[in-house]
Each structure stands twice: as structure tokens, then as C-alpha cells.
């Protein structure tokens, strides 16, 4: 079973670098049918989770620290390496991993070595469409009159310096997916490489050197857009220095003084507009050209987007007896027929979809507060057929924002004998015909003197009844020249004919 990062490398080398199947198979020591299968595959392969050993340093840390303190007094050539210290701990009974010992030794030496010397760097240059850098920042804004701390996703094309920023209420994986979709749509294409910190939504495990075990679902995104993900060395922000500088600049340019907007949609529209306006500034390397002019050149080198990535995160949940699923401490309704069943809940940055039996059975706008109840009253209508009394005090129906005419008719009908069941029958009919015919029927009934469910239903049937066919215009050539005469006397002779039943 191949890992997602190897599959992504196969597709990238074949589809982007135009490398042959044989060359890739020879280099990666795979069969050509395997390489060919993954080059043609568009779906997510099965994943077999790999177990990682748990660090077991525990009580051995004191012993290890004592050895390091003693050997620090010795000449450098006489000090044991982390590997030799690991072997010494094994002789003492340690059964953990070498990586744990190595990390402990590195941290201990970093603390004891004192302040580091001033570091020097090499200036970098990039080709058009080669690299884009990504980072998060936390900013303060006022949305709908409420002060909030928001998360801002930053993208930076390293050749043109074109930036893109988009704001979210959280810093979760579905926000990362949505940010990539929006950034690639803004740029008009996909770069060859994307550079990241070791955030959990991207990297699951940091291995030796530059080796990383990338998040499985994130690799589906990279596989879809066919870009190479690169994770920086921990605590080495200079490896993506452009976007690190952008974070501070954007805070000064866009969020000071305090930004005030009605909602995230208005804020993000303004941020995208400001990104285009700031691109009119001079390019830092070629001041005779603007960032926007360099961006036009870089766009030609970006790979075109074939399809938008469906960036959802899946949760397997069980529907409660009150037809609700709980996601991030908020409750969303599901059709009553699925109460007690396990369903798949797909959460994106803006929407929550509930999937069962291969079909979407419910969709809601995503909420980001806590302990909120998001109900669709139509989901509970089958329950009203058996328990019409729930219409009066059921939370989904009490909070149902119905048109004014329907509310007036409902209040009049509920005061009548068996009014609950009568109004439920109107709702059942409206489920098939829609709320608009019910609203018109209620308006017509309110104009009269009698307001009952039977009268409303009669008006609805008239509104939704199929229209009568119009008069057909028959061509003259098809009209009868001699109209037949109606002669009923020809049936009189039948009275004289006897019939025998056999």
C-alpha cells in the first residue's frame, strides 16, 4: 500500500513534469502498472495507518542528564553522540525509541550552549509559478458590532510577491481546504510547491531532517491540485520569510485601525479588493515594475485548475432520538426517518451536510458559537402525523419563521376543535406543493369570513390543480365536410332482438 505523499509525487512527476511512466517506476522502484494506475486514478486510495512508537524516557531522563553534565567537562572528541547515549540507556533497561533520546539531547545542548551567534542568510530567487508560501495569523476585528479574534490565512507567490488573505472564525482543517480553494481561484492557477509550517492540519509527524508524514486528508488536497507540499524545519521561519513578513505588514495595512464589518462575507470581499490594490505597489526586486505586472507574468506559469476540491472533513455520528446530530457543540436537525441511525456529517468552512445511504439528506449553514440549535421544521413533519400536539410546543415549530398570513391562519385554526391535526394536514399538503400556495390560500381565506382548515385546503387545491387544456385550433383541411347527425332511433330495433346467455 502506497502512502499518499508517494502517490502525489507520482502524479506530480508525470502530470506536471511530464516524466515517463518507466522513468518514475525505475526511480521509485515500483512496477509500471502500479505507477500507471495511480497516474490515472482520481479517487482517494485506501489508507493503512502506521503505528508510531511512544516515547518511554520517563525515569531515564535523570540518568541521561547526569551523563550529559559529566561529559560536558570532557573534550569534544571524547563525548558520546546521541546514538551512543541511546545504546547506553538500552543497557540500563530503556525500551523506548532513539528519536526521543535524540530530541532530549538536542534540547539539553541548546539550553546549555548559551545565546547563539547572529545568523546569516543567503538571498533567494524564484521562478514564476514555482513556490507559494502559507501561514496563519490572529487579528482583532469588529463583526456585527461584536469584537472578535479571527484567524487569517496568508498566501504569497514568491516570484511576483502577489498576496492573498482570507479570514475565518477558526484555524481547522476545513478552513485550510477552503482557503486553498479561494487562493487558487484568486491566483487563477496552482504553483508547483506550497511551503508550510508544521501545523497539525498539514503535518502529522515530523521525521528526520525534511522528512514528514503528511496528514492523509491534506494529501488528498495536494493530490487533487497536484502540487508538492514542503514543511519548514521547526522554529525556522526564515524558510518562508516572505509570508512571515507579510503577516506583520498586513496587520499594519489592513487591521489598524480596527476593521469593522457586518460579517465574514463582507470582510473577505474587502480583503480580496485590498490585495488587488496593494499589488499596484513597486516590486521589491524590480522597482521599475509593479507587483501586479509581475503577477500577470507569473499567472502564465501557474497550472490551470481542472475542478474545485471538495474540502470537507468527515465525522461519523449517530442521530439522537430528537433527530439531532452534535458537531462542535452545536446541534443540527436530520429528517425523522433517520433517528437512531449512524450518518456521515461533512463539515466545510460554511456548511454542514448530512449524508446517509449515499445521498445528502440534510444541509445547514454552519454555526461557530456553542450550544446552538439549528432546526429545519420540515424534518419533524412526519412526527406531527402521529403526534399533532407537538405543533404547539415543539421547538422547531415555535421558532419557525412562517409568512404572516400563515401565522394568522394557524393561530385561528389552533383555537378550533382538533385544530392541531387540521393544521398538520395543511402542512403535509404544503410539503408537496410548497409554502407559496399555502401563503396565497391563507391570504384568500383571510379576506373572507370563514377561516377553517377545510376552506384553506380547498383554496390550495384550486391553486395547485392542473390547468385545463386550451381550445385547439383545427386546420380547415382536417374539419369534417358533412357533420354527422345524432339519430337515436337506430337503437330501437335492438329491443326486438333476443339474446341468449350461454
Which features does this protein show?
502 residues, alpha/beta, Nucleotidyltransferase, domain 5, six-stranded mixed β-sheet, elongated
Structure description:
With 502 residues, this protein is of the alpha/beta class. The chain folds into 5 domains: 4-40, no CATH class; 60-112; 131-299, Ribonuclease H-like superfamily/Ribonuclease H (Nucleotidyltransferase, domain 5), CATH 3.30.420.10; 313-374, no CATH class; 381-463, no CATH class. It is 38% helix and 17% strand. The protein contains 18 helices and 15 strands. The strands form 4 sheets. Strands 1, 2, 3, 4, 7 and 8 form a 6-stranded mixed beta sheet that branches. A 4-stranded antiparallel beta sheet has the order 9-12-13-14, with no helix packed on it. Strand 13 and strand 14 (359-365) form a beta hairpin. The longest helix has 15 residues, at 98-112. The protein is elongated, with a radius of gyration of 35 Å. The mean pLDDT is 87.
Total helical elements: 18
Helix content: 25-40%
Name given to the CATH architecture of the largest domain: 2-Layer Sandwich
The biggest beta sheet reads:
6 strands, mixed
Give the class from helix and strand content and strand pairing.
Answer: alpha/beta
Parts with pLDDT < 50 across at least 5 consecutive residues: none
Strand content: 15-25%
Which helices and strands, and how do they pair?
Elements: H1 4-15, H2 21-28, H3 32-40, H4 60-71, H5 82-91, H6 98-112, E1 131-143, E2 146-157, E3 163-168, H7 173-187, E4 193-196, E5 203-206, E6 212-214, H8 216-225, E7 228-231, H9 241-254, E8 259-261, H10 264-278, H11 291-299, E9 313-318, E10 324-327, E11 330-333, E12 342-347, E13 351-356, E14 359-365, E15 373-374, H12 381-386, H13 390-393, H14 395-398, H15 404-414, H16 419-433, H17 435-446, H18 453-464
Parallel strand pairs: 1-4, 1-8, 4-7, 11-15
Antiparallel strand pairs: 1-2, 2-3, 5-6, 9-12, 10-11, 12-13, 13-14
Helix pairs in contact: 1-3, 1-8, 2-3, 5-6, 15-17, 16-17, 16-18, 17-18
